[in-house]
Amino acid sequence: MPKIAAPTPGMRVLCRDAEWLVTRVDPSDHSHQNYAVHCVGADDLVRGHEAIFLTQLDTIEPVDPRNTQLVQDQSSGYRMAKLFLEAQLRQMPATGVEPDLEGMGVFKPMKFQIQTVEWALRQLRPRLLLADAVGLGKTIQVGMVLSELMRRGRANRILVLAKKSMLTQFQSELWNRFGIPLVRLDSAGIAKLRLRIPANKNPFEVYQRVIISIDTLKNVGSYRHFLENTRWDCVVIDEAHNVAGASVPERHLAYRLARLLSRRTDSMLLTTATPHNGKRETFGRLISLLDPSAIPDPDFKEYSADDIRGFFLMRFKEDVREDAGADLTDRLLVPIDQTTVPATAEEEKVYAILSELRAEATKNKGEEAWKNNVLVQYGIYKQFLSSPESCRKTLQKRITAVQAKDPESPELPYLNRMDSQLGTLSIRDSSRYQLLKRQLEAIGWDGKETSPRVLVFTEYRETQDALAATLAKDFKIKYSPKFEQQPKQALATINGSCPDIHLMKTVEAFGTGASDVRMLLATDVASEGVNLHHQCHNIIHYDLPWSIITLIQRNGRIDRFGQTESPVLRYLRISTRDGMLKGDESIFERLIEKVEEINRSTRQGETVLKLYDPEAEERYIAEAGILQGNVDVLEKPSSEGEVESTELESVLSQANPAGQEDFLKFLLGETEEASAADPTADSSGKKYSRLRLYDDKRFLLDGYRYLAELHQDYAAIEENGKLMLLNAPKDLRRRLGAPNERGDVVFGATAIPSEAWPEDNQFRLTEDPDRVELAIKAARNTSGHWSRELLATDQQPILQWITERLLMLMKRGECPHITSRSLESGELCFCFIGQVSSRAGAPLVVDAHAISFRKGGGFEHRSLRDALDAAGFDSLVNQGNTGDIKAIQGPLIEAAVESSLEHMRELGRKHVDSLLPFLRRENRRLRNWKNRRQELLESRIEKLPPNHRKTKMYRKDLEEMDAYLRDREDNWQDTYFTASTEPSTQLVLVIEGVN
Amino acid sequence: MSDQFEFHPTGLTRSQFDRLSEYADRAETISPGHLLEEARQHLEQTQQAHAANRMINVRLASAIVDVIERVANVWDSLSANHQTWLAAAMLYFSSCDDDEPDFDSPIGFEDDVEVLNSCLRLAGLNDLRLNSEDYDDA
């Protein structure tokens, strides 16, 4: 009896007396003898149901292709055979390493973004830290990489971890632009899900593609058991610096979570604009999350450029400005003298006291009463610069505290005088507020619905509260500080106390044209990650944080990719007559200039002072600049940590491919010939292969219409210019998790985000990315994040559903038979899709080919495309000539199948051969790492007593190293590179030549 | 036995050196012709194993045997110390169970090359040293 290969995607199998379509095959144990076979029901009993069968528990019967039964296609123009073949081709994984941007999504790809995808695909195991500067479209790059991995069958199971405030933004970007549906889960969502599934079932295996906040998941203890038993194809961690910055990483829950996930996934993408804090170990830790075998030093302190090259990409605005063109608008800084006003006479009196206080504190800085008194030295001053309200609160607290501790304290008279002077001052009377009002006037902002949107930042909650109340009164705007009211008001505020759900809604409203919000008054809670540029290009720094990092992050909210207007920046500044404080103005001015210089350079803002922390920068600017009267404080880095960070930057710059003429050659560190080699090019040497008979639009229309003819409950699809309107039938609603469909929990389900599901169940699809771009903008003008129109791409879940339904046009073991006058009479063209799988069931080689037998014994092997062209397939009409099916059944099919299998065996051999250089290089790298690490750990152990805590730790490191290497062999090499012994093939069409 | 030599191969990992030293202890009793025969037999086994697993680096194994043959040709001109270490390197090659399993890894012969290169360097036969990367292609 001939050997039948294990099931492969696209195959029809019999299991538990029902027929199924295989959609995915995963290993189900470490031996790789058993598989988890993901299926969709194909016969009347189970149609549309999803299930996973374990080969160790269930008998899964694939059909032997030699026994394929031919079925005469009687449809007009052979529609059925054509659509069936197209569906087969669409479920074939793509091969090759060149990205195919055609129809990938809604975006204008930049060269540097394409390079990201190219490099990810070149990696045998895509693992990359995207460390581009703020606002350069890291999410788009994540979407591009995921799309390409999905096309290759390497990103079916995706987990995205993001900050709570970023979940909706990330989720909607991937859905609107790439058609990648992520299901958002929070703690409550996971708990609810667990109630709906058996207690021993893993909630993380219910949905294929999930987005969860780091905070929800970092409680590794609660979820550890499930996470340890879940494998992902790709894990994405957004703002990844949040998982690697802790001083004791082992106690850092987020780091432990990331490390666990790193070992449970094939691909991994980390994104952050701040990949290190100047310390080698923070960057090293991020790299080791991507690949534990990158850096031999277990403390991640010692590494060279060669150790980290290829694991990260770091580009700055200036690196990409030429490439980005109009998508990166130049920003405009309103000249400082136009945003500077003198202090009022009342304010000058306060400044005079502050100046005296500082002089006294500086003079007596060695004395106990003044020593380390940051608040007195500059803290109260900084708050007064912001607002009287902010200063007053701090001042009064200080007075109470000092009186209680030391009523004779020398600072008390100054504090009391200042309190008395502050007495009647309010934000409304302050020069800064009056300046703000004038700037708002210049912008044309009056709080009414015609006002342009403005983003105003302040450092202090008290200033924010006072400012909101005063603006509301002066501009006659209704304002409530309640969180839930913020998205509905012309003046909205967000700060650290705002619950995430309200924060997300307020941010969404600020980016939605039709919403009432005209001004977002934010503390620095909004300065990291969130996109605020969609409807806003005006930013006002009401007060000035003494930190380059904070200012860059703030400006990055509106000065980013996709900003259509020139961002306009205003830094409000007050000048004083007081001699001592007047010197500070030069420092503030230089701070602003520095931020603008960095914006025009190819370096990180953090590198100026080399402190890598906003609070440390503030302290440094205050102590080394303001208190010393040193206007050059920003001209050279702080000595603290300078040596280490300079060395780190040098290593990063040696390893960073940005700006390299041939970035691939640089990353591969190879000769030109070698860099042109391609680890996954297909058998024909093509860099990319996707055979299509229909474009996406025609496939959607023709495929759905054909299905609608067979199913009376499918409403007609409407074509309206470039738009196609599809009313989701019940089985599509159930399949893609419509909010009102309460079916059973389906494991391995793909679900469209509930917010994106149209209320009337009508999907609006188009093939025109520009149209979707407009729809995304329209959504931002009207309803928020979710576009009402979607791009019809092959990864779109609706098109995937159509593909699945069309694959079920044939029963198990059946294949369409058609005739063609373009072939010689009696010629038989057997069309196959063959696959060589890895030992773990992953596709290694997939090939569409045809075997032709001619009368008189002629035999030809061709690519499927060539065979179809020879048969005039695209223009074939069904003339009712049935051919001779009976004569074909049996030995001829058997011979064609044997020939196809031999062809696949040969492709499998070639594939393994082509991979060998890459695999050897990777294994060599691993071995080198092992040797270096082992030597390092053993030499450290030798120097320590046997029972020392560190000895035990290093021994554990050695054990973990061995376990890791075993895992790489079992779960990576075998999954993706070790070919199973027998290929599979499926007969998908027979074309018979007739007269 | 190996302890008595003043000069020994360098640049090896501890486990490679320990194993090589064990072979050096045995090497004195084995003739160069026998060592060469063992190496050829191992290459034959490698070729057979390669038929079932294309990841085995048969090209590199073959190159190692070529080098061993050339060493055998100049055997008599080598010092006793160098002969012992080179004989140990040949035994190391002929053994499957070494640092990197020969038939179970795409780089199964890299440790053999490292050991052999180290002994060739010791013997001043630098021009016979191999670069594994030159044999990465199938």
Automatic annotation (TrEMBL), chain A:
This is DEAD/DEAH box helicase. One of its GO terms (molecular function) is helicase activity. It comes from the Bacteria. Keywords: ATP-binding, Helicase, Hydrolase, Nucleotide-binding. Signal peptide: none annotated. Residues 119-293 form the Helicase ATP-binding domain. PANTHER family: DNA ANNEALING HELICASE AND ENDONUCLEASE ZRANB3 FAMILY MEMBER (PTHR45766), SWI_SNF-RELATED MATRIX-ASSOCIATED ACTIN-DEPENDENT REGULATOR OF CHROMATIN SUBFAMILY A-LIKE PROTEIN 1 (PTHR45766:SF6). The keyword Iron does not apply. Gene3D superfamilies: P-loop containing nucleotide triphosphate hydrolases, Tandem AAA-ATPase domain. InterPro entries: DEXDc_RapA (IPR057342), Helicase_ATP-bd (IPR014001), Helicase_C-like (IPR001650), P-loop_NTPase (IPR027417), SNF2-like_sf (IPR038718), SNF2/RAD54-like_C (IPR049730), SNF2_N (IPR000330). Coiled coil: none annotated. PROSITE patterns: HELICASE_ATP_BIND_1, HELICASE_CTER. Residues 439-615 form the Helicase C-terminal domain.
From TrEMBL, chain B:
This is DUF1232 domain-containing protein.
